[in-house]
Amino acid sequence: MLIKHLCYQTSATLMPTVRVVAGVTFVANIKSAIKRIQIAERNRLRNKAYKSTVKTLIKKCLVAVQAGDTIQVESTLRVAYSKIDKAVKRGVLHPNNGARKKSRLARKLKQLEPQAQTVAPSA
């Protein structure tokens, strides 16, 4: 890549040429490069939303575990697992990262089960 194509000379410094398209600033001059930058930004925002949703669902599940509400835990756990699996399928999360998140949630749920068994003894 030739830097001189992306820059212009001012008094003492080299300044990048900047384009603003739809509120986004670009350093690229080539049309396909500008499009790739736009696509990357769109994907970044989509990935950010997915990650945020996964974090929110994990927090809801952990709050339900701390409260000891097994019905709430099971429903939130099911939704969290589904969202984690979708994020892995769409490439937002690495498969190992998704597996680790699910494993940690399962471990927290496992800690809740002995408490539930002591409260309700079996017949």
From TrEMBL:
Annotated region described as Disordered, given as residue ranges: 92-123
Compositionally biased spans, kind Polar residues: 114-123
Entry keyword set: Ribonucleoprotein, Ribosomal protein, RNA-binding, rRNA-binding
User: Which regions are flagged for Basic residues bias?
Assistant: 99-109
Pfam families from the entry? Ribosomal_S20p
Spell out the Gene3D superfamilies in the cross-references. Answer: Ribosomal protein S20
Q: Which GO terms describe its molecular function?
A: small ribosomal subunit rRNA binding; structural constituent of ribosome
What biological-process terms (Gene Ontology) are attached? translation
Write out the similarity annotation.
Belongs to the bacterial ribosomal protein bS20 family.
Q: Which PANTHER family match?
A: 30S RIBOSOMAL PROTEIN S20, SMALL RIBOSOMAL SUBUNIT PROTEIN BS20C
Which function does this protein serve? Binds directly to 16S ribosomal RNA.
Q: What is this protein called?
A: Small ribosomal subunit protein bS20
Q: Which organism is it from?
A: Gloeomargarita lithophora Alchichica-D10
